[in-house]
Amino acid sequence: MSMSSPRESDAPTGYRHELYPYRGHQEFLDGTLGFIQEALDGDEAVVVAVPHDKVTLLRAELPELSAVRFVDTGAVAHHPGRLIAAWQQWIAVHTAEGRPVRGIGESPWEAAGSRAEVRELQYYEWLLNKAFARSPAWWLLCPYDADGAYADLKAMTRCHPEVRRDGRSQPSDGYDAEAAYPFEPLDRPCDPYEEMHYARGDLAAVRGRIAECARRHGLGGSRLRELTLAATEIAGNSIKHGGGRGVLRAWAEEDRMICEFRDRGYLDDLLAGRTGPDAVQVGGRGLWLAHHLCDLVEIRSTPEEGTTVRLHMALRD
Predict the structure, then answer these.
(1) Using one digit for the tens of pLDDT, what is the confidence trace for 138-182?
(2) Which stretches of the chain are DSSP H helices?
């Protein structure tokens, strides 16, 4: 294996989050193998979490190295809301070994089946900076296919403090550490949709309305049970934290069942539901459960407009 890349004497300390735009398999390999070689030169471990086809490319070029660990991304590959907790777990395991750690993480852009999933993947990339701001020092390289179906380099540079070009790390022109994430508006509900106002004592009625709508669109069995459990948690949050009441809307579009919950509460924890609850924590697990029961969870919350949570469940496995 022949790999080389310039090292930087003035590299920043702490968590580093670097975008690597590439075009084609060879550019992917050039950047990632150069990054791995830098790590090996510095006696660092490397955690690799990339789609299966990229695993095949890298394994063909790499010898069996104990410092390079490929992790199984199957459980989180289609679930943006689970990715931060997965990285926390992977990095905790390898930092416990006492070696500096780098990561290579390519989000599953090509697996995204809707614009909503792409929005959530972009938001996940931005949230990584918040999630690891006070973590032990490590460095994450994010390969990004600039020719992909959903490619948006402007959005990606906004999410990454650094960009890798020609084997060198450079500050990202579009990144602003102080700026709030510019959410895109949620798509309008698809007509026709069910609507129900709920309050304390109405959780059974919420479950019934969702089950009725879901069965009409062909969702049943364990998938329906998981959706109704997640919906119960979110509606319960509305009652407890959102002024005692909320509005449910439910509909189907593009082979997905969507349940939307609106209330007047404000969720100020950007990482709510994306990091694991403490073992002794009482309450506060509703969003965590929703992310692990549903295929996609979208959250929008402002002091002025309140909170909207959308639960997505594919009608077919």
Answers:
(1) 999 999 999 998 899 999 999 999 999 999 999 999 999 889 999
(2) 24-41, 52-61, 83-95, 115-131, 153-159, 203-216, 221-241, 286-293
Is the residue at 225 inside a domain? yes
Q: Residue 262: which CATH number?
A: 3.30.565.10
Helix or strand holding residue 259 (H, E): strand 256-263
Number of domains in the chain: 2
Given pLDDT bands bounded at 50, 70 and 90, which one contains residue 283?
low
Residues 135 and 200 in one domain: no
Q: Which residues of 212-240 are buried (b: 16+ CB within 10 A; e: fewer)?
A: ebbeeeebeeebbebbbebbbbbbbbbbe
What was the pLDDT predicted at 35?
Answer: 97
Domain carrying residue 202: 194-314
What's the token pair of residue 136?
């032990």
Dump pLDDT digits (tens) for 82-101: 999 999 999 988 887 778 99
Same domain membership, residue 215 and residue 143: no
